[in-house]
Design brief:
Length: 353
């Protein structure tokens, strides 16, 4: 079986790795070709070492409670390279009405797990704090398979004030998207599971904590919510590429600097064939094609195969982000001693002048 993967970002590399692993376990003969249009693999992951600083040009961490990233790192032999946020500088801040205020501890995972920090926080009014507690009594939504936006879900569970001042800025820092459009099922499905299973996000978080404590064997080091690799996320990219190259070119061929210009179905039936056309004029015959590309790129390639799917893909909105890394001597900051944390977020509401 010949498989072509279009896109050499982290999604394409991980797909190739998983495909070859499961094919080997099932003893299935397979050859895989991965095509990347740029000169480097890893997509948006860009790590540079500048003047002793590890600088990330794209994502700088991933969520540890979503098990796949951590699991992949351990499979690749990077388990001892995983590192969390600095526990001595664990604070996060919110810029609200011109001042940096500490984010309530226990809410960094977007769901309250500690009551006292929340009730002591000046970021919420008493009415907002009481409305948050109503999560314990708000009825769960019908389990009918329909999706809900992040904004709708968190307003319904916690109220508008908690969403606007705390949840929305933190979520935007993770996804750089509009909460009114982001899918709950695609981003934080475990909160939907908490609601359906326990009838409350707070109850679900507490139950999850009890389960973790009960199942903790002490064999793996505890990880913070956000984790990365000691040399930057490029370590994961390099490890994936090295693992794929060790498979051998007869099973796995990695090609960069190659742009795909067309995708057509060469034959139909139970086992259709596909032709992948490259900018060089070369054509690759494939039994299966994986599109590990942005939605708008996939839409262009799928237009001749399924215009309906292509048009749906075009409706997915994208946003642009900029990463600016600045370093200052601690001595140049008069209040450096009070800013021991790993960042701050800015809500849309409030006076930021």
């Amino acid at each position: 079986m010949k498989v072509t993967i279009i896109g050499g970002g982290i999604a394409g590399l991980a797909t190739a790795y998983s495909l070859l692993k499961h094919a080997a376990l099932a003893n299935l003969p397979i050859t895989c070709t991965l095509l990347e249009s740029t000169q480097h693999f890893g997509g948006k992951i860009r790590t540079e070492l500048i003047d002793g600083f590890i600088i990330e040009g794209g994502p700088d961490s991933f969520l540890s409670y979503k098990p796949w990233g951590v699991g992949l790192c351990r499979e690749l032999g990077l388990g001892d390279r995983l590192m969390g946020t600095n526990t001595q500088h664990h604070r996060t801040y919110v810029l609200y009405n011109g001042r940096l205020r500490e984010f309530p501890e226990g809410l960094v995972t977007l769901a309250p797990s500690q009551a006292l920090p929340l009730f002591m926080s000046p970021l919420l009014s008493m009415a907002g704090k009481l409305r948050l507690l109503m999560d314990l009594f708000v009825a769960k939504s019908p389990s009918n398979g329909t999706d809900e936006s992040l904004a709708s879900f968190f307003r319904r569970r916690f109220g508008a004030e908690v969403f606007e001042r705390l949840i929305e800025p933190l979520m935007t820092g993770i996804y750089a998207g509009d909460a009114e459009q982001l899918s709950l099922r695609a981003t934080f499905p475990r909160f939907l599971e908490f609601e359906q299973q326990y009838g409350s996000i707070i109850k679900g978080m507490l139950a999850s904590r009890r389960q973790r404590m009960k199942s903790d064997t002490g064999t793996q080091p505890k990880l913070t919510t956000f984790v990365t690799l000691r040399g930057g996320l490029v370590e994961m990219v390099r490890a994936l590429v090295a693992s794929l190259e060790r498979t051998g070119k007869e099973k796995m061929l990695l090609r960069n600097g190659v742009r795909v210009t067309g995708l057509t179905q060469a034959s139909s039936g139970e086992k259709p064939k596909y032709e992948v056309t490259l900018d060089s004029g070369e054509s690759l015959s494939s039994d299966a094609v994986v599109l590990a590309t942005p939605a708008f790129t996939a839409a262009d390639l799928l237009m001749s195969l399924d215009s309906g799917v292509a048009e749906q893909l075009r409706t997915i909105p994208y946003t642009s982000t900029a990463t600016v890394s600045l370093a200052y001597p601690a001595a140049s900051l008069s209040n450096a001693h009070s800013l021991k944390g790993f960042g701050f977020v800015i809500p849309r509401v409030g006076d930021h002048d």
